[in-house]
Amino acid sequence: MHIVYPVVVSVLLFSVGVYGVLARRNTILVLMSVELMLNAVNLNLVAFDVWLRDRLHSGQVLTLFVIVIAAAEVGLGLAIVLALFRNRRTVDIDHLRALAEPDGPAQPPPPSADGAPGASGAASTERGEGAL
């Protein structure tokens, strides 16, 4: 078997993955593109392990580690995407760039102990009631 064939397939897979990461705006599709890139790396590891006839099969062992890391990455990535969707109602990457909370209705400040709205409560912190 020539090493060129799996390497060319791996390069094509990796290129499609890079294009997906750079061009897509949907977070799920970006995660799928990262998985494509990891699978291209796995294909290279196994192909070179067979081509070099490694007795310890280091490439295949490393491929198993990459698969485990990829599974963990998918689990955490999807959990983050679901949390972002619950808070922001979108998975569009352009709308998720800002780390600040989205603009919504302004909440009035809670009333202080003396009943005046918007008071800073400095008197209570001087007495040690509000300090941690």
Automatic annotation (TrEMBL):
<feature type="transmembrane region" description="Helical">
    <location>
        <begin position="6"/>
        <end position="22"/>
    </location>
</feature>
<keyword id="KW-1003">Cell membrane</keyword>
<protein>
    <recommendedName>
        <fullName>NADH-quinone oxidoreductase subunit K</fullName>
        <ecNumber>7.1.1.-</ecNumber>
    </recommendedName>
</protein>
<feature type="compositionally biased region" description="Low complexity">
    <location>
        <begin position="113"/>
        <end position="124"/>
    </location>
</feature>
<keyword id="KW-0813">Transport</keyword>
<dbReference type="GO" id="GO:0005886">
    <property type="term" value="C:plasma membrane"/>
</dbReference>
<keyword id="KW-1133">Transmembrane helix</keyword>
<comment type="subunit">
    <text>NDH-1 is composed of 14 different subunits. Subunits NuoA, H, J, K, L, M, N constitute the membrane sector of the complex.</text>
</comment>
<dbReference type="InterPro" id="IPR039428">
    <property type="entry name" value="NUOK/Mnh_C1-like"/>
</dbReference>
<dbReference type="GO" id="GO:0030964">
    <property type="term" value="C:NADH dehydrogenase complex"/>
</dbReference>
<keyword id="KW-0874">Quinone</keyword>
<dbReference type="GO" id="GO:0050136">
    <property type="term" value="F:NADH dehydrogenase (quinone) (non-electrogenic) activity"/>
</dbReference>
<comment type="similarity">
    <text>Belongs to the complex I subunit 4L family.</text>
</comment>
<dbReference type="InterPro" id="IPR001133">
    <property type="entry name" value="NADH_UbQ_OxRdtase_chain4L/K"/>
</dbReference>
<comment type="function">
    <text>NDH-1 shuttles electrons from NADH, via FMN and iron-sulfur (Fe-S) centers, to quinones in the respiratory chain. The immediate electron acceptor for the enzyme in this species is believed to be a menaquinone. Couples the redox reaction to proton translocation (for every two electrons transferred, four hydrogen ions are translocated across the cytoplasmic membrane), and thus conserves the redox energy in a proton gradient.</text>
</comment>
<dbReference type="GO" id="GO:0042773">
    <property type="term" value="P:ATP synthesis coupled electron transport"/>
</dbReference>
<dbReference type="GO" id="GO:0048038">
    <property type="term" value="F:quinone binding"/>
</dbReference>
<feature type="region of interest" description="Disordered">
    <location>
        <begin position="99"/>
        <end position="132"/>
    </location>
</feature>
<keyword id="KW-0520">NAD</keyword>
<keyword id="KW-1278">Translocase</keyword>
<feature type="transmembrane region" description="Helical">
    <location>
        <begin position="29"/>
        <end position="52"/>
    </location>
</feature>
<feature type="transmembrane region" description="Helical">
    <location>
        <begin position="64"/>
        <end position="85"/>
    </location>
</feature>
<keyword id="KW-0812">Transmembrane</keyword>
<keyword id="KW-0472">Membrane</keyword>
<dbReference type="Pfam" id="PF00420">
    <property type="entry name" value="Oxidored_q2"/>
</dbReference>
